[in-house]
Design brief:
This is Major facilitator superfamily domain-containing protein 12. Belongs to the major facilitator superfamily. InterPro entries: MFS, MFS_2, MFS_trans_sf. There is one protein chain. 67% of the residues lie in helices and 3% in strands. It has 370 residues and is mostly helical. It has a domain at 120-324: MFS general substrate transporter like domains (Growth Hormone, Chain: A, Up-down Bundle). The strands form two sheets. It has a two-stranded antiparallel sheet with strand order 1-2. Strands 3-4 form a two-stranded antiparallel sheet.
Length: 370
């Protein structure tokens, strides 16, 4: 139940994250339209610097305002670990106690779920294969979303040759599609598992990449690409965060290391990819003509992290997330202990229960009949 609640929180978190992106694009569109697109409606040029300055000022003012609202008006609840970790105390009267059958442990009994009591340190996560599988999925999902958001406007200007107004509208369409995906995902999850939903999102991304490789592109095709990329990237990010929550499980004492590590590799990978793509423009572009180059970036370039994401999902398809190597070893040790006790016990398996009559009195050495 806690994992489900956490997944719902991720959906709401991403919903407001994308909503903030939508606000940025609305401000940019309104600013460029008010300034007449720098006198050139067909392309973005240095004459549009005023529009970028105004957009930046608006974003800083709005962001600062809501940050102050959060820090001033958001109460911070105090947390008492002893009240949450200790079980409720149940006081019972001696007269209400009923003598129950005494059951000996048997070899068929399932061991206690030790995953609720086993802690994972950062050293344990470093040696855990599931940690790297989820890192691959999370980093690839972020790479798909960031590449689509970064290079889609460049693709529209260099490859699709659309006007400035459409360049400001298409990213807005992608963000709105992401908002719709975050809302509809809760309904969609009732019909499919998280892993199946991830595969569907990857297929949607592949379909968008295939459309982007076609030339020439109509306006309707460009809108379709934006919608598909928005749906795919949003679902991928939400589900990758849900996979991360499943991986952590109840080992929340080291969750900061898990999220921090994945965020670090995500930002490092995205930065390196963007730098490499920009450096390769000298090789991929024919002088100032980068039409084919950025078309390949949006089609083939985004398809590569989608493939890595699909590979990660295939790897974890038969794995129960959260059942780490440390937990499995503890459970195996518990199974061996129970088996040893059963084999060394003189009581046969047919006598695993002793029924004691309610009118019997138990002494130190014998059971006497009243």
């Amino acid at each position: 139940m806690n994992v489900i609640r956490l997944c719902i929180q991720f959906v709401y978190r991403y919903f407001f994250d994308v909503t903030s992106d939508v606000l940025v694009y609305i401000i940019a569109w309104a600013t460029f339209r008010a300034n007449g697109f720098g006198g050139n409606i067909d392309r973005i040029d240095p004459g549009d610097y005023i529009s970028f300055e105004v957009t930046t000022i608006f974003i800083l003012v709005i962001g600062t305002f809501f940050s102050l609202v959060f820090h001033v008006f958001t109460p911070e609840a105090s947390w008492n670990p002893s009240s949450e970790m200790l079980p409720n105390t149940i006081e019972e009267d001696e007269e209400s106690l009923v003598v129950q059958p005494i059951t000996m442990p048997s070899s068929t009994a399932e061991p206690e779920d030790l995953s609720l009591r086993i802690s994972m340190a950062w050293r344990d996560w470093v040696t855990e294969p599931q940690f790297y599988y989820i890192s691959l999925i999370y980093t690839s999902s972020r790479l798909v979303a960031n590449m689509a958001n970064i290079f889609m406007p460049v693709f529209l200007q260099e490859s699709a040759n659309v006007n400035q107004e459409l360049i400001t509208i298409i990213p807005l369409v992608m963000s709105l599609s992401g908002v719709a995906a975050s809302i509809l995902l809760k309904v969609f999850r009732k019909c499919a598992s998280k892993k199946a939903s991830m595969v569907i999102a990857i297929m949607i991304g592949f379909f968008a990449c295939s459309i982007a490789s076609v030339r020439p592109l109509s306006t309707y095709a460009i809108y379709l690409i934006a919608i598909l990329f928005g749906l795919s990237s949003s679902i991928l990010i939400i589900l990758s965060l849900a996979f991360t929550a499943d991986l952590i499980g109840y080992c929340t004492e080291s969750s900061a290391f898990v999220y921090g590590s994945m965020s670090f590799w995500d930002k490092l990978t995205n930065g390196l990819v963007v730098v490499v793509i920009q450096e390769l423009t000298e090789v991929g572009c024919d002088g100032d003509n980068c039409e084919i180059y950025y078309k390949r970036i949006v089609s083939i370039g985004i398809a590569v992290p989608l493939l890595f994401c699909l590979l990660g999902v295939i790897i974890i398809s038969s794995i129960k997330l959260g059942r780490t190597k440390k937990i499995r070893s503890k459970l195996s040790a518990s199974d061996e202990t129970i088996t040893t006790v059963n084999e060394s016990s003189p009581v046969s398996s047919d006598s695993s229960e002793f029924l004691i009559a309610t009118d019997s009195k138990m002494g130190y050495g014998a059971i006497t009949r009243l």
